[in-house]
Design a protein that fits this description.
By secondary structure, the chain is mostly beta strands. It has one domain. It is built from no helices and seven strands. It has strands at about 1-5, 10-20, 25-30, 35-40, 50-60, 65-70, 75-80. Strands 1-2-3-4-5-6-7 form a seven-stranded antiparallel beta sheet, with no helix packed on it.
Length: about 80
């Protein structure tokens, strides 16, 4: 997943899937005012579906850690910026 640069907390977009022919899948996201959750709306299921309201467990200049509860238990994703 790649989060595009975004000046506001609403109407932001990103890419969650890149095919060898350079086609991509995209998503939109909204960050809560208190930065405790991020709501992701995935536009296609290729590459996985990230739809839902994710809890933000860590957010700083280098890391973004997300967690969501599913019927199989918690799912976590950790992003690190190089």
């Amino acid at each position: 997943m790649t989060f595009d640069a975004c000046a506001s907390k609403t109407g932001c977009t990103g890419i969650d899937y890149k095919e060898s022919d350079k086609s991509t899948g995209s998503f939109s996201f909204v960050i809560a005012d208190d930065e405790s959750t991020i709501t992701i709306t995935d536009t296609m299921s290729a590459g996985g579906s990230y739809d839902g309201e994710w809890d933000v467990t860590l957010f700083n200049n280098k890391n973004l850690h997300l967690k969501i509860s599913t019927f199989l238990g918690d799912s976590k994703i950790e992003f690190t910026k190089d």
